[in-house]
Amino acid sequence: MSPIIIAVDGTAAAGKGTLARNLARIYHLSHLDTGRLYRAVGFKMLKEGKDLADREAAVSIANSLTHEDFDNPALRNEDIGVAASHVAAFEEVRKILLVFQRSFADQPPAGMQGVIIDGRDIGSIILPAAPCKIFVTASLEVRAERRLKELHQKGINCIYEAILEDIKARDARDETRKASPLRPAEGAYILDTSTLGIEECVKKACAYVESKYPEARKHIE
Ligand code: DC
């Protein structure tokens, strides 16, 4: 069987990361969360006191990233997500990170059934030939509720309205930028998670994956 290649895209806080991690576990796939790449650039911009509109600085930071930069636990913070969505609008930054993403997809580690990559433009730009494309979304309100819960669980104090506004602004930046705007890839399977729990989402996604890869082996149920 040829390696499984799954592209997962979607709006902020819709559950694409959780879905991708689950599918990676179930089918034994190597997983790349591409948000971490943009977050790593955003993190360094803030750390070095750069203006988020400084294109040259963002390009130079993107060029100098190393694997250690992607493992920083601080990348998950809200302010870094916002910074990432600013630097992600620079076409040159996207081109630099594209090379890393494509080479990840080209070399599934030995013993794995393939790769799963999640982000915003995986099905449309990074891996347009991927046989499996999933676009994950949910209503703005549901996404804000989920993000609020996640932050409260981490002990971070925040209010629903502020998160709602943050996500709305991030959607607008992701969807209206000129370089690779967020939108479902042609032929993508649209998974609206607004009224679904994680198990149901995973079950639906597995049915879709297996419609494309009937020979995919499940490592766990
Ligand atoms: O998925 P995330 O929240 O970690 O992504 C952070 C930001 O990075 C998001 O607002 C837009 C940008 N991003 C992108 O433009 N393209 C990707 N493939 C992944 C993330």
**Rg on CA atoms, Å:** 17 Å
**Strands across the major sheet, in which order?**
2-3-1-4-5
Helix percentage: 40-55%
* Order of H and E elements: EHEHHHHHEHEHHEH
pLDDT below 50 for ≥5 consecutive residues: which ranges?
A: none
Overview in brief:
The chain is of the alpha/beta class and 221 residues long. 52% of the residues lie in helices and 13% in strands.
Could you explain how this protein is built, in words?
This protein is α/β, with parallel strands linked by helices and about 220 residues long. It has one domain (about 5-210): Rossmann fold (3-Layer(aba) Sandwich). It contains ten helices and five strands, in the order E-H-E-H-H-H-H-H-E-H-E-H-H-E-H. A five-stranded parallel beta sheet has the order 2-3-1-4-5, sandwiched between helices. About 40% of the residues are buried. The model has no long low-confidence stretch (mean pLDDT about 95). 2'-deoxycytidine-5'-monophosphate (DC) binds next to helix 2, helix 5 and helix 9.
Question: Key features?
Answer:
5 strands, alpha/beta, 221 residues, 10 helices, Rossmann fold
Secondary structure blueprint with pairings:
Blueprint: E1 4-10, H1 16-27, E2 29-33, H2 35-47, H3 55-63, H4 67-70, H5 78-87, H6 91-106, E3 114-119, H7 122-126, E4 132-137, H8 140-153, H9 160-176, E5 189-192, H10 198-212
Parallel strand pairs: 1-3, 1-4, 2-3, 4-5
The protein binds 2'-deoxycytidine-5'-monophosphate.
